[in-house]
Write a structure and sequence with these properties.
Blueprint lengths: L2 E6 L4 H14 L4 E6 L13 E4 L2 H7 L8 E4 L2 E4 H8 L6 E4 L4 H13 L6 E4 L11 E4 L12 E4 L4 E2 L1 H11 L4 H12 L1 E2 L3 H23 L3 E5 L5 E4 L1 H6 L13 H7 L4 E8 L2 E12 L2 E11 H17 L16 H14 L5 E4 L6 H11 L7 E5 L5 H9 L17 H4 L4 E5 L6 H13 L1 E2 L8 E2 L3 E6 L3 H6 L5 H7 L2 E4 L7 H11 L5 E2 L1 H9 L5 H15 L3 E2 L6 H6 L4 H10 L2 H12 L6 H7 L5 H13 L3 E3 L6 E3 L1 H11 L4
Parallel strand pairs: 1-2, 1-3, 3-4, 6-7, 6-8, 8-9, 17-22, 17-23, 18-19, 19-22, 24-25
Antiparallel strand pairs: 5-10, 5-11, 12-13, 12-16, 14-15, 15-16, 20-21, 26-27
Helix pairs in contact: 6-7, 11-12, 15-17, 18-19, 18-20, 23-25, 24-25
């Protein structure tokens, strides 16, 4: 156990007082030994690490008894705070006699009173046997019996107690590092009048900062150690102590070449090591003071905890709705054009440059944008989407950039965070960028150039780390030429362009996509499939989804041409080639009359048709039937079933009647 020696002239109240005074702080965690100068013999050695004496003269006398390892400290003393109030109440300029056991200690007491701010009185040091008839008040630190009898009022402030400055010296020499002792000194310092209030405050500030540092390193889930320049451990948190078999003062060496080769680097950022079946991400950074390196702080992050944190972050983002639900694996395609787009998008994902996705409405621009985000290094962070054409200018501005409280009439009382701030570290998707007002284009340009935003109604600049993906179905170059889109913004956006093909150029994807949208298995007649493959799909994939929704609701098991929505039948097919063949062979009116005749019957032969259409002979009817059969508009059956019109024939009739050419 560490020890302190107290040397006084003789055993008495003072020696016992000082022992108790020390134990107020050290609470028996440091051994306190009393020595009395009158009892010390020549050659006797005091081997306590710290020896405390009352005055400089005593320090000189004790020197011959102290071991070479001992440090002699002259105690600086002060008064208890509660005793000072008695003195403070004495009227100004009053003569007050100060009495102590010796002339030297009396002078010390006077100096102490002045040094702690009692300067409104006229203190007179007592000299033994001298009469002070004009003085009525005396102050003494526990030496009441030495005060002359004629003094009317005696204020006993008690023995002078040890000052904080002396305790700090003892702490330093004994290398005290005990939380309870440090807390005791804080409490003790609050009960005394320190000779140096600056030291008291500095120590309290240092203690509080020490506590804050301890809470900080204990609060983290990482194992943390601080080492000196010789790589000896100075401080650790409990997680580090539990994980690794190191103690304070040990050299920070694992005796594992793979780990030690990593740790000997001057700076480490996120390098991976394996220790006892656990995987850690290691960070190491020099600690510098006044440009001099004083050591290093090293942290070990359990990769399992990191993954758990990632999952929690992802969960929180999902709860708030700011996440990307699509990825590249979810894109259904057999189209070479689309596969090329996906390959480009995957390469683009790994960069942070701005992306501009162009394509007709409904081609899947947002799906590609979400896939890029989920394939990028930002996948853990928010994906925020906004349609620039869906909101008026003022509302779009406040949504994107946020606003301060009271920024405008109707603003939320507490203000509002903007989408750029919400998307920080993630991705913001600006759909229909071609419809963004020119004023907001200017603000967006600043975000892209400076990575900074300002809320509406605020002058404060906020730094943001956001990747921007923009999309449009418009020709931005033409908008630039027409003065409707800023040229500088166009070039800022068009860093990494992707152009998505329309569905009509992805015919091999039409049926697989349609099947994926259906709730159940549905069969399609050949004519229906042929029609869908040749339809122009102006609404692209979104329109195909609408068709699937219609078929799901109608609960068809097998879809014929007549089951399709009317607008598909009206606009979905081109019969110009068939019309040209017909007109090169027969009069169109005759062919139409034959088709209509067949359509009105469940099945009819050529003789019956000739009888019903008197101006067409049976031979010509036979030729027209052969032509219609070759064109796939009728079905010929043997026997009584006769000839029947099919869906293509019906569609051709509908096409002719409506004049769709």
């Amino acid at each position: 156990m560490k020890s302190i020696g107290i040397v006084t002239n003789k055993k008495g109240q003072l020696s016992e007082f000082l022992r108790k005074n020390l134990n107020e702080v050290f609470v028996n965690k440091v051994k306190i030994n009393n020595y009395y100068l009158q009892d010390l013999n020549d050659g006797e050695i005091i081997d306590d690490k710290v020896i405390l004496v009352m005055i400089d003269e005593m320090a000189y006398k004790v020197q011959k008894y102290a071991s070479k390892e001992s440090t002699i400290i002259v105690i600086e003393r002060t008064l208890r705070e509660k005793e000072i109030y008695k003195i403070a109440a004495i009227p100004s300029d009053t003569k007050v006699l100060v009495v102590n056991d010796t002339k030297e200690t009396t002078i010390e007491t006077v100096n102490l009173l002045y040094s702690i701010g009692i300067n409104h009185l006229n203190f007179i040091p007592y000299i033994e046997n001298k009469v002070y008839g004009d003085i009525k008040i005396a102050i003494t630190p526990g030496e009441v019996d030495k005060v002359p009898d004629y003094i009317e009022t005696i204020i006993d402030v008690g023995h002078r107690c040890i000052d904080v400055a002396t305790f700090l010296k003892v702490f330093n020499y004994l290398d005290i590092n005990d939380k309870e002792i440090e807390e005791n000194l804080i409490k003790y310092s609050e009960s005394i009048i320190s000779k140096d209030m600056g030291i008291k405050k500095q120590y309290m500030d240092l203690f509080i900062k020490g506590q804050q540092l301890e809470v900080l390193i204990e609060h983290t889930q990482d194992a943390i150690a601080i080492v000196d320049n010789e790589e000896r451990i100075v401080l650790t948190n409990s997680i580090f102590a539990n994980l690794f078999n190191f103690k304070i003062g040990n050299s920070f060496i694992f005796n594992n070449d793979e780990i030690d080769n990593v740790l000997k680097k001057d700076e480490i950022k996120g390098e991976i090591i394996k220790y006892k079946n656990q995987i850690f991400a290691v960070n190491k950074k020099p600690i510098k003071y006044l440009s001099y390196k004083s050591g290093y702080i090293i942290s070990f992050s359990d990769v399992t905890n990191i993954k758990r944190m990632e999952q929690n972050i992802s969960k929180k983002i999902r709860e708030n709705g700011f996440y990307a639900k699509y990825n590249f694996d979810m894109i259904i395609t057999n189209s070479q054009k689309m596969k090329e787009c996906i390959n480009i998008a995957k390469k683009i994902s790994k960069s942070d440059h701005t992306v501009l996705i162009t394509g007709e409405s409904g081609t899947g621009k947002e799906m590609i944008a979400q896939s890029i985000h989920n394939y990028s290094n930002r996948f853990m962070y928010p994906f925020v989407a906004i349609n620039c054409a869906a909101l008026p200018e003022n509302l779009l501005e406040s949504e994107l950039f946020g606003y301060e409280k009271g920024a405008f009439t109707g603003a939320l009382r507490e203000g509002k965070i903007g989408l750029f701030e919400i998307a920080n570290n993630g991705t913001i998707f600006l759909d229909e960028i071609g419809d963004m007002p020119l004023k907001l284009q200017t603000r967006l340009l600043r975000v892209l150039q400076e990575k900074q935003i300002m809320r509406v109604g605020s002058d404060n600049v906020i730094n943001v780390n956001v990747r921007v993906i923009a999309a449009t179905n418009k020709d931005l170059k033409k908008l630039v030429d027409d003065g409707l889109f800023r040229e500088d913004l166009y070039f800022r956006l068009n860093v990494l362009p992707i152009s998505l093909p329309p569905l009509r150029e992805r015919k091999e994807d039409i049926m697989p996509l349609l099947y994926s949208f259906l709730d159940r298995k549905i069969d399609f007649e050949y004519e229906v499939e042929n029609l869908l493959l040749n339809y122009r799909w102006p609404g692209n994939i979104r329109e195909l989804q609408n068709i699937a929704s219609y078929l799901n609701v109608m609960e068809f098991n097998k879809v014929t041409l007549s089951d399709l929505p009317q607008y598909i039948l009206n606009y979905g097919i081109d019969f110009n080639k068939e019309l040209e063949v017909i007109e090169n062979s027969y009069k169109l009116e005759k062919v139409i009359d034959v088709l209509e005749c067949i359509g009105k019957s469940e099945g009819v032969g050529r003789r019956c048709i000739s009888e019903r259409i008197s101006y067409i002979g049976e031979g010509e009817v036979r030729g027209i039937l052969d032509l219609l059969y070759d064109l796939g508009m009728i079905n010929k059956n043997k026997g009584r079933s006769g000839t029947k019109i099919n869906n293509k024939g019906l569609m051709f009739l509908n096409w002719i009647r409506k004049g769709i050419k």
